[in-house]
Structure formats: C-alpha cells, structure tokens
Automatic annotation (TrEMBL):
GO biological process: one example: methylation
Sample GO molecular function, one term: protein-lysine N-methyltransferase activity
Membrane-spanning parts: none
Keyword Methyltransferase included in the entry's annotation: yes
CDD domains tied to this protein: AdoMet_MTases (cd02440)
Descriptive protein name: Electron transfer flavoprotein beta subunit lysine methyltransferase
A UniProt-annotated Pfam family: PrmA
C-alpha cells in the first residue's frame, strides 16, 4: 500500500488501530527500510510473526500471511519491529471486495495485463493470476510487501507476480489492460493524485480501472466518487464487521471519467 502519512483512527479497524498507534509512537526510533537485510531474513521474519489465515474473509479460498492478535508483535514493543509499518499484513475490506469480485467474475482478468496498485498482501494480484490474467504486476512502495506477496502466492500454489516497489503514481503510464485499487482512497491528497494519473492511463492506453472500497468518508466525500459506477457490493463477514467501526459492506466500482 502507498501511505503518505500515519493512519488516523478513522482510517483503520478497531484492533488494527491500536496496533498501528503503537507503531506511530515509535516511528522515529525504527528503521524505515530493510536495507542490508536479505530476502531470506525477511521471509523468516514474516513466517515467524504472521499467521496463515483468510477463512473469515470475503475470500476464504485464499490463504494469506497476516497479522492477528495471536501474533507476537500484536503485543511486543513496537521499537523492536525492524521495518516500516506493516500495512501489507492486513487484509483491508476494499481489497477483500475487489478480490471477491475478480474470483466471481474470472472473465474480467482472463488474458489481460493487470496492475495491482498499492498491492499490500497481494490478494488481488493472486486473484488475477487464479483467473487467468496473462501478466500481473503487484506494486507497493514497501519492499517487504513484495516478499510477503511471494510467500502468499506460494501458499496458494502460484508463481508470484512481478513485484515493483517504485511509486508508479504520476509516472509515465505503462500499458495495462486493467488496474486494481483496493483501499487506496483514504487520503484526499492521494485520491487527487490518483484521479489525475488514472485519467492519463485511460486516455493513453484505454485502461480499465476497478476500485474496491468499504465506503470510508475520505472516499465518499471525494469528487472522484461521482465518476464511479458500482459493479458489486458485498456484506462483510461478521468478524470483519467487528474489526471495522461502522463498515458493514464493501463495494467494487468501475472508474468512468466520462460520466
């Protein structure tokens, strides 16, 4: 996920909020990259400090390594965490809806080139690969997310997608048939920059854009909202509802700038 600043209480779940608040309090004392740490170390660290789960999500057929209250760093002193904040370790509701929609409608991805922007745990990229996408790129500026995505692909018996850690927003648009954005409209500044960049992608390559969001205020109140056509809405499982204040559903939208 691409994060311009700290999460605020309105942006994250009940349990996750407590977890990330502790991380924010020690941000300046932590190493913000994994420079000098091998992929083998990162893989071992992720394996030891996440739990393989997913059954209680909208996509119970996907297995993912995620943070749960059973994990050590849910209780451990945050300053001992060696990386940047682990947004890749949460299966956010918008990403759940997007992945569910793709799995239910495999023709959306079949034979296409797909970019999962702000890919986090890689669930939507995994869904695209399961549904026959010709080429999948998972983009997340946190390089640890790439390792997590590789591990999650292995859990699901898949070859990993191409993982890119450069910030692609604002860059020269590459040719993708389809772009996924799950839970990316949590910040007005980021939403505005996404709006401009997505317009360029559509005008340059005719790219289709699908957005997953549970209806957070930052999304509902942004001007881009009037340019979206709703494709599907999913009721969140009870456990996901309990973790997210006031969020009972999550939707998938198609971005139509010509509306």
């Amino acid at each position: 996920m691409i994060m311009p600043g700290p999460l605020t209480p309105s942006k994250c779940s009940r349990y996750v909020k407590v977890f990330f608040r502790a991380f924010e309090q020690t941000r300046r004392h932590r190493c913000l990259s994994h420079s000098g740490r091998s992929d083998a170390f990162i893989r071992s660290f992720i394996a030891e400090n996440t739990e393989t789960t997913g059954e209680q999500s909208l996509t119970p057929e996907l297995r993912l390594r995620l943070f749960t209250p059973n994990c050590r760093f849910w209780r451990e002193r945050p300053e001992l965490w060696p990386f940047d904040d682990p947004y890749w370790a949460i299966y956010w509701p918008g990403g759940q809806a997007l992945s569910r929609y793709v799995l239910d409608n495999p023709g959306v991805c079949l034979g296409k080139t797909v970019l999962d922007l702000g890919s986090g745990c890689g669930a939507s990229a995994i869904a695209a690969k399961l549904c026959g996408a010709a080429h999948v790129v998972a983009n997340d500026i946190d390089t640890v997310a790439a390792v997590a995505t590789h591990m999650n692909c292995e859990l699901n018996g898949l070859e990993p997608p191409v993982c890119v850690s450069d910030n692609m927003i604002g860059s020269e648009p590459e040719h993708f048939d389809l772009i996924f954005l799950g839970d990316m409209f949590y910040d007005e500044v980021l939403a505005t920059s996404l709006h401009s960049w997505l317009d360029r992608c559509i005008k340059t390559h005719g790219t289709e854009v699908l957005i997953g969001d549970p209806g957070r205020a930052q999304f509902e109140g942004h001007g881009i909202r009037r340019l979206l056509h709703q494709l599907a809405q999913f009721e969140l499982p009870e456990s996901v509802r309990e973790e997210n204040y006031g969020l009972t559903c999550s939707s998938v939208w198609r971005y139509h700038p010509e509306l």
